[in-house]
Design brief:
single chain, mainly alpha, 73% helix
Length: 137
């Protein structure tokens, strides 16, 4: 009886791997192009189209600068209010977590701090202090 050859011979496996690599590379390239187009679209949407500064007269340049300044000024004001809102929400979250921990009966213990009295309460420190305070002859 002759042995039956398997369907996936090494040559077929190699060919299939190369085809899969090519297809993955093509899809990756398409995805990168799509992301680049999306990025350009978002930039154009947020910033507007690029103004022609080379062929503009002095008055047109002043208008363009005023438009950019107005847009910047509006965005700064919006950023200020957004930062204020974030701070207020952080405070609300903090208050809510404190109230939840109060309801559960679990309290956050602050880290213990060493006081000056605990430093001198150890036996070695007491001996040192006595040796320093006692008169030596």
């Amino acid at each position: 009886m002759a042995k039956k050859k398997g369907f996936m011979t090494p040559e077929r496996k190699k060919k299939l791997r190369t085809l899969l690599r090519k297809k993955a590379a093509e899809e990756l390239k398409k995805e990168q192009e799509r992301k680049a187009e999306e990025r350009l679209r978002v930039i154009a949407e947020r910033c507007g189209t690029k103004a022609d500064l080379d062929n503009a007269s002095t008055d047109e340049l002043k208008k363009i600068c005023q438009q950019y300044f107005d847009k910047w000024y509006g965005l700064e004001g919006e950023m200020f209010f957004l930062q204020r809102e974030v701070i207020l929400r952080d405070l609300q979250i903090n208050e809510l977590t404190i109230s939840v921990s109060d309801m559960k009966g679990k309290f956050i213990k602050p880290p213990s701090r060493r006081s000056p009295s605990t430093k001198t309460s150890s036996p070695n420190c007491k001996r040192r202090l006595q040796s320093l305070l006692s008169p030596t002859s």
